[in-house]
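Session log. Operator J.P. requested a structure for one protein chain; no other inputs attached. Running the standard single-chain path with token output.
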Amino acid sequence: MRITPLGEESLGIRSMCIKIDADGTEIILDPGASLAPRRYGLPPHPRELEALAEFRRRLERELENAEYLFISHYHRDHYTPTYSSVYMGTRGENIYSGKVVLAKDFKSANYSQRVRGYVLHKSASSSAKEWIFADGITIKAGNVKIRISNPIPHGREGSRTGFVIGISVKHKGYSITYLPDVQGPLSKAAVKFATETKPDVIIVGGFPYYLLGYAFDENDLKLSKELLQEIVKRTKPDQLIIAHHLLRSANWKEALPEGISYATYASLLGREESLLEAMRKELYEKEKPPPGHFELFKGRDKEEKGD
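Structure written below.
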């Protein structure tokens, strides 16, 4: 099996999009991306817009041969809506046409995600080859086994941001497990799915270190380290890939357990991490935007608020 990172914070945007190619069965996980409407009181820098546009071009190319699309939840950096958005780099396209879509059941999501999931399903499902609410199911695609988790908390147990679903892809005894937005993880449910799927490669959404002291405290950080260590101890993966929320901080490595081996999306591509959101203030100081740049975002902050 081959994995190809498409978008993520180490590649300059908010995303966890990655493609898995299992003996010709191609699955794109969380085909979406977004930019933070505000960071340090500033809108996205032109370099972030360039990174987002490049992601959209990559995704468009990879969609050509992908049969399956997986949507773990309905935060804006994990799916592509069918409306235009400067923060998501969309022009109203429908990427789901002709695809088998394995999607989180929006009926068991929190209110904002129920609304987004309903709107997406209504606007895109009729053109899909098949639209499956996939929570807890297992399917076979030829000799590839795809297992979807039951809902896992988006962070802590009882999180107001609702639930996500993870996915395991297995082919000829080799498996990849993807746990998006589990934030460290911060729940035993994430550990349970990782343990049950026994991955050779595991991709974990890291702790939101940039929100420490605001939405999270030192106890949360401690728990995230302990549960990540527990996953590694129980599964002994060949490769641990740390992604997403953690890399919204310039000092993200401080939030990882000592002595742990890991990769990032950028390192898988042989690149240095390009943490453009974390660098936004510095970018504005060093690279002044062109005239009219701020007009792109005028009146849009409320519309795009939240993940």
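Operator note: The CA atoms of residues 33 and 292 lie 24 Å apart.
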